[in-house]
């Protein structure tokens, strides 16, 4: 291969392509000045005029020559700086490639003398070939000369990633729990507004009702006030255990019957969060319809409901169980009249137990745990 002469290459590639057009322009300018001088001398061929023209021509030629010399000097200086920087970068690249080749057992690197005689393009192609050859060392194998990071460092990294993932999961769970609590409180406030508006309307009607109808209306107002009180208690003092999902050994099926949307929602949410299978209806007729489809272990029954109250619903429930041979469910009354007379009426209707309104959420779970202690754990009060 013919040797690479850097100076000759530099002049052929950089200097002459720029210098030749510039020199031609300078020669054209000098020629134009000579023509002008000859014309002037021909028109006035005196010795003094010819001396002046000669002096001007000499100054013009001297200025053009200085221009050419300065141009060439600037081009050479700039070219040397660019070439020096390029040689430095290319040399560092060759040095790093040579070090990688030595580590991998490849001795295909160029020596310093060989690099000086090679064209820059050839040297760059040689470095690319070295890097391509080193790329074949990347697949991981037992006999590969490419060393993997220390196993302990890998294990530390994996443990750290696992911890970060666990922390992220906890944060996501906390975010979902906060969203659920916010949604519940919004639902509570909406129901509170609806119940309060209905109560105010009922109180307005009560003021114009007859004395005979006031006693029944007062009982209904008492039920509505108990619902609102239960709602406020659960908004302000939510039990922390209610956000923990519990999986009982045997999942019991529970039915909640209550015409009040507040108590119905609270009861269903509390029971479901503790792992129970819950159905919720707002009338005795719907409860009896579900009895024909499902078998319930325990039923929370509101006593004061329109059309068919809880006592009549309990009597028909027991009659259906007796007629169809269905296992007896535990019927628990939900009522604000928890005195002796009220308890006696519930027991005569076939109920097993009673919870006084307003009640805390843990009261429902503790009542289920009292009847099924082996399957449902008790909940400590908040």
Polypeptide structure, described:
With 382 residues, the chain is α/β, with parallel strands linked by helices. It folds into 2 domains: 6-132; 171-371, Response regulator (Rossmann fold, 3-Layer(aba) Sandwich). Helix content is 67%, strand content 7%. The chain has 11 helices and 5 strands, in the order H-H-H-H-H-H-E-H-E-H-E-H-E-H-E-H. It has helices at residues 6-43, 47-103, 112-117, 120-135, 151-207, 211-236, 261-273, 284-291, 310-324, 340-348, 361-371, and strands spanning 253-257, 277-281, 298-302, 330-335, 353-356. The chain has a 5-stranded parallel β-sheet, with helices on both faces. Strand 1, helix 7 (261-273) and strand 2 (277-281) form a beta-alpha-beta unit. The two termini are 93 Å apart. 17% of the residues are buried.
């Amino acid at each position: 291969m013919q040797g690479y002469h850097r100076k000759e290459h530099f002049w052929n590639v950089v200097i002459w392509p720029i210098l030749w057009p510039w020199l031609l322009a300078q020669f054209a300018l000098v020629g134009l000045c000579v023509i002008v001088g000859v014309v002037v001398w021909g028109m006035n061929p005196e010795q003094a005029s010819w001396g002046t023209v000669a002096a001007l021509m000499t100054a013009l030629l001297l200025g053009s020559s200085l221009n050419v010399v300065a141009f060439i000097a600037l081009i050479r200086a700039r070219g040397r700086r660019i070439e020096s920087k390029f040689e430095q970068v290319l040399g560092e690249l060759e040095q790093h490639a040579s070090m990688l080749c030595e580590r991998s057992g490849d001795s295909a690197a160029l020596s310093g003398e060989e690099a000086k005689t090679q064209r820059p393009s050839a040297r760059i192609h040689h470095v690319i070939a070295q890097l391509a050859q080193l790329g074949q060392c990347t697949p991981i194998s037992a006999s590969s000369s490419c060393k993997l990071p220390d196993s302990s460092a890998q294990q530390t990294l994996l443990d750290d990633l696992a911890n970060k993932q666990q922390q992220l999961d906890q944060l996501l769970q906390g975010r979902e729990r906060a969203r659920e609590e916010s949604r519940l409180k919004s639902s509570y406030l909406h129901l509170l507004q609806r119940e309060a508006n209905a109560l105010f309307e009922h109180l307005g009607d009560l003021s114009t009702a007859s004395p005979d109808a006031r006693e029944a209306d007062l009982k209904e107002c008492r039920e509505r006030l108990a619902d609102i009180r239960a709602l406020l208690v659960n908004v302000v003092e939510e039990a922390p255990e209610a956000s923990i999902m519990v999986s009982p050994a045997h999942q019991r099926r529970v039915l909640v019957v209550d015409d009040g949307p507040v108590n119905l929602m609270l009861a269903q949410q509390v029971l479901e969060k503790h792992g129970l299978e819950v159905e919720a209806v707002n009338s005795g007729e719907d409860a009896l319809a579900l009895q024909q489809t499902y078998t319930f272990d325990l039923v929370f029954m509101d006593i004061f409901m329109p059309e068919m109250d809880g006592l009549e619903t309990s009597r028909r429930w027991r009659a259906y169980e007796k007629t169809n041979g269905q296992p007896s469910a535990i019927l628990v009354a939900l009522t604000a009249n928890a005195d002796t007379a009220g308890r006696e009426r519930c027991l005569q209707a076939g109920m097993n137990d009673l919870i006084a309104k307003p009640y805390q959420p843990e009261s429902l779970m503790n009542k289920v745990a009292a009847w099924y202690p082996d399957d449902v754990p008790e909940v400590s009060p908040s």
